[in-house]
Amino acid sequence: MPSKGIDFANLSLMDALDLAILVEDEALVRYEDFAAQMDQHRTPDAAKFFRYMAENEAKHGEQLAVRRAELFGSAPPTVSRALIFDIEAPDFDAARAFMSPRQAMQAALASEVKAHAFFVAALPVLKNAEVKALFEELRDEEILHQDLVKVELAKLPPDSGLSDDDFVDEPAAQ
Amino acid sequence: MSATCEFQAKDYKSDLKPIWCPGCGDFSVVQGIYRALAAIGRPPHEIAFVSGIGCSSRIPGYTTAYGFNTIHGRALPIAQGIKLANPDLLVLAAGGDGDGFSIGGGHIAHLVRRNIDITYIVMDNQIYGLTKGQLSPTSQKGRVTCTSRFGSLEQPVNPLLYMLAYGAGFVAQASPTDLVGMAAIIEEAIRFPGFSFVNIQSPCVTYGEEAQQIKGLKAISESLVALGHNPADRLAAMDLAQHYGEKMHLGVFYRNPEPAPTYDGLVRERQALLSKDALPKERILDLFIKK
User: Fold this and answer.
1) Which of these, B34, B69, B224, B282, could form a disulfide with B9 (CB 3.0-4.6 Å)?
2) How far is A123 from A15, CA to CA, in rounded Å?
3) How far is the C-alpha of A57 from the C-alpha of A61, rounded, in Å?
4) What residues make up the domain containing A110?
5) Chain A, nearest residue to B178 by Cα
6) Mean pLDDT of A140-156
């Protein structure tokens, strides 16, 4: 499980909400980074899709933050980003130069699958009923997010079947 | 130290956008450095970040610390000069394996023996990436590149053994496959009182071999903590370090339990001692003027 020292058995609802917000925020930052990388490498279509994903993550994070504020006000969080790594954020090496929109969407889909697996793996360990309900909700949302990406994938024209390597020269001898 | 307020990782991120290849391991490394610096809590203006030349040597520009992208292989001498001129600065040096262990390799022994309080982070990708894929000092034997068309005949340098053999007080290895662990190791290295070295196996997505990409590295990684390694045991560290290139041990290989005095600290002490009998500044010029 891509987490460091989360005590799932004793997780409180506030901590669980804070962790969920951090998960969304980590994904948001990663998608923004990926969008910037695609801009730098003149791949605007992939950049546009990563920005769309970043907006979605921001929206989910805000929704969770509202819930957290309603339930716990401004109580200081007791969990930190050091507890999580790459839960919903795509892997660092998922980005590639000259990514097609299809490849960008596949990277996002893989990260939604990964996030779903995280919540599924955590559920049996949870003891707090409210936390369990929240994780079940988040698990189900990941399915919805996967469907969202699949809808975008379906809009794409058929894959050309060509690989990036077909367009890239081998390094020249020095 | 003037750190009275809390800093977040984003406070160390500059507005400059990295131009590394998408998927490069260095994206993860810079995030790890942001996190480590936030945990340390020193304000950016109290940090000097020095690098050599290469893809990874662009890293100071992506932070809000004072940055100095110097010349090839010369990050360490310049970092030493900065630390001695202003010992209050937190000084980081960074670069790649080519910069650090080839053209800059001769500087390591002298920095280690002086034990100047600098943290040196090497992003080791076993290739010269910026110049399009030539053999580097850490490239594996047999590696085919544009400068070794029939496979390298050379044994690679072992950066971990290098540092341990020279007597470095802190030697660790990290990986972008574990950002949280990497940030913690960098933080620990910075906090170590004396020279500290962190080798980060950071894959080159463009010219790196398949086995050295994130998935390949994950497959050969082993946590030193999980192995029960005692980081105070230098000989055990050297034994484990011999597996560089075959296994990727992550964590602290060696942390000197009794850190030696730092050169910068000794210089300060001597300055304080000698300053008692020193001439006032305004009279020093008189020494050079013939009466």
Assistant:
1) B34
2) 15
3) 6
4) 8-157
5) A85
6) 94
Interface of A with B in 86-145 (CB under 8 A): 86, 91-97, 99
Of A40, A96, A99, the CB nearest to B17: A40
pTM score: 0.88
Q: What is the pLDDT of residues B122-153, one digit of tens each?
A: 999 999 999 999 999 999 999 999 999 999 99
Question: For chain B, how many structural domains are there in total?
Answer: 1
Q: Does residue B279 sit within a domain?
A: no
In tens, the pLDDT along B26-74 reads 999 999 999 999 999 999 999 999 999 999 999 999 999 999 999 999 9
Verify whether the Cβ–Cβ distance B22 to A96 is below 8 Å.
yes
Residues 6+ apart with CB under 8 A from A92: A30, A86, B23, B25, B27, B28, B176, B179, B214
Question: Is B272 domain-assigned?
Answer: no
Q: In chain A, which residue's Cα lies nearest the Cα of B213?
A: A93
Query: CATH no. for residue B181?
Result: 3.40.50.970
Q: How many CB pairs under 8 A join A and B?
A: 67
Angle, helices B159-166/B234-241, rounded to nearest 10 degrees: 160
Number of domains into which chain A is organized: 1
B182-236 pLDDT, tens digit each: 999 999 999 999 999 999 999 999 999 888 888 888 889 999 999 999 999 999 9
Q: Print the domain residue range for B128.
A: 9-260
Q: What is the CATH number of the domain that holds A32?
A: 1.20.1260.10
* Whether B209 contacts B136, CB under 8 Å: no
Residue A171 within any structural domain of the chain: no
